[in-house]
Design a protein that fits this description.
The structure holds two protein chains of two kinds.
Chain A: H1 8-13, H2 35-39, H3 45-54, H4 57-61, H5 75-79, H6 86-99, H7 105-117, H8 125-133
Helix pairs in contact in A: 3-6
Chain B: E1 7-11, H1 15-19, H2 21-33, E2 37-39, H3 52-56, H4 58-75, E3 78-81, H5 84-99, H6 102-113, E4 124-126, H7 127-134, H8 136-141, E5 151-154, H9 158-161, H10 164-167, H11 177-183, E6 188-189, H12 206-222, E7 227-230, H13 233-239, H14 241-250, E8 258-260, H15 261-268, H16 286-293
Parallel strand pairs in B: 1-2, 1-3, 3-4, 5-6, 5-7, 7-8
The chains are: A mainly alpha, B alpha/beta.
Chain lengths: 151, 294
């Protein structure tokens, strides 16, 4: 059985957007139109919020947690009558998982690519050739020195 | 150009210039034909992308987005984006910075340390908004080859519509603007079941992600669509390349061509499919093109 983490709810609530967690009265308005709930067996935004409320954080921030199935479609944000916005609770859970090294490797890699190179997709000679063939100029130069912003 | 030509700084993001440059080409041609003046700018970073980077660190996501907005403000022009991810990130980040929570305060301090500031004086405009600002009559007037007979399933993409209180583009469950822009080209927009559903791109489990897209494509076909129109390179990738994966992994075949709205606009303005690079699309667009000419 998953253990409760005493300060989980407080830590989560301090992340931007997740502060209305305790307003949730478990009505399930977030579930009906949730594409991940329809397609991914264990994904249920109401239960994710409930686990957060109960402080059962281990379930949410473990490696390969179900939270990473969220499509970020924001239907739950629109449908939530309490302003809890389950998507924002889920994003906050992702942040806590990432902070302890439990984000999926491919997602950490994408974050690090952007942090280190200012772009999600690295330029290549192949793409420069394709751009040239289309009559497009070179891609504008990306930002430099993002390190100080990301300390 | 006349004095009233709308001028924007073009924020291309990553996926369009570095993976789908044919979309950039159509945008530059078609928007230029409408009199929009698009200026390029060095020094932007990834917007950053609003589900993985934001999922890894909301603070990092916000500081990079706010930095992009601060750089954009120096140009004195609004930003124009061709991607829902860029739109939602830059718009939501602007909203957070203007409404000042703790995260915004931390970001403000970091920007100031680099001599940058965000004041909220410039807007981020999605190409759908910029075209609606011009008006559907102006869009229609640029058409030299009306797309009559073509049935189009419009896919807005989630990050254009929701959360509506922040993004403020169109009704989050009954949007009409993109349909209006499609009909301005002489085509017919067809409604289908699950009209505002997600493309599924961000779901981590690949089969579930493809299932979400496949269901949507099937609904579009059932409604008689000849092609899909998107306004986001992530939705484009999921629905175009995704059809190859859907066939391979789920055994379902849709053969429904996918175009960015700017590509449909460029075609209606007389652009030739080959010179617009449409041969790069994984689902053959020719059947839809024949329908246009038919």
């Amino acid at each position: 059985m998953a253990k409760a983490i005493p300060d989980f709810k407080d830590k989560l609530s301090r992340i931007e957007g997740a502060g209305r967690l305790t307003a949730c009265y478990q009505c399930s308005a977030c579930v009906a139109e949730c594409p991940a709930a329809q397609q991914c067996g264990d994904f249920n935004p109401r239960l994710i919020v409930l686990a957060a409320l109960l402080g059962v954080g281990e379930l949410l921030v473990e490696k390969d947690s179900v939270i990473w199935q969220c499509t970020t479609c924001y239907k739950c944000y629109e449908r939530c009558p309490q302003g809890t916005h389950p998507i924002e609770v889920i994003t906050a859970c992702k942040n806590l998982a990432a902070a302890i090294g439990n984000a999926p490797e491919e997602i950490t890699a994408l974050h690090d690519t952007v942090a280190g190179n200012a772009t999600l997709i690295m330029p290549s000679t192949a793409i420069e050739k394709r751009r040239g063939d289309l009559g497009l100029g070179p891609v504008p130069a990306p930002a430099e020195d993002l390190e100080r912003l990301l300390e | 150009m006349s004095a009233s030509s709308p001028e924007y700084t073009l924020f291309l993001g990553c996926m369009i210039p570095l993976r789908h440059p044919q979309i950039e080409l159509s945008a530059r041609r078609s928007l230029g034909a409408l009199g929009m003046v698009l200026s390029d700018s060095d020094g932007f970073s990834c917007c950053p992308e609003p589900w993985n980077v934001k999922g890894a660190s909301l603070d990092d996501w916000l500081v990079l987005a706010a930095r992009n907005l601060a750089v954009a403000e120096r140009s004195g022009r609004d930003l124009l984006v061709l991607c829902n991810g860029c739109y939602s990130t830059l718009t939501e980040a602007g909203h957070l910075m203007s409404n000042g929570g703790e995260a915004a305060e931390r970001v403000r301090g970091k920007l100031e340390a680099l001599g940058l500031s965000y004041s909220g004086t410039r807007r981020t405009r999605h190409v759908v908004q910029a075209l609606c600002d011009l008006g559907t009559d102006a869009v229609s007037a640029s058409v030299t080859r009306p797309l009559s007979g073509l049935k189009v399933a419009v896919h807005h993409g989630c990050h254009l519509l929701r959360p509506h209180e922040i993004l403020q583009v169109d009704d989050p469950f009954d949007p009409v603007l993109l349909e209006g822009l499609v009909e301005a080209l002489g085509a017919e927009a067809v409604r289908y079941e699950g009209y505002t559903d997600c493309c599924g791109k961000a779901t981590r489990d690949q089969d579930s992600s493809l299932r979400i897209a496949s269901n949507k494509l099937a609904a579009m076909k059932s409604a008689g669509a000849d092609c899909v129109v998107v306004v986001c390179p992530a939705c484009f990738e999921q629905m175009d390349l995704g059809q190859v994966e859907i066939k391979r992994r789920l055994g379902e075949e849709h053969r429904l061509p996918v175009l960015h709205y700017c590509q449909l606009l460029a075609l209606a303005q007389g652009g030739q499919p080959d010179s617009l690079g449409l041969g790069r699309h994984r689902v053959d667009v020719k059947p839809a093109l024949q329908k246009m000419q038919g």
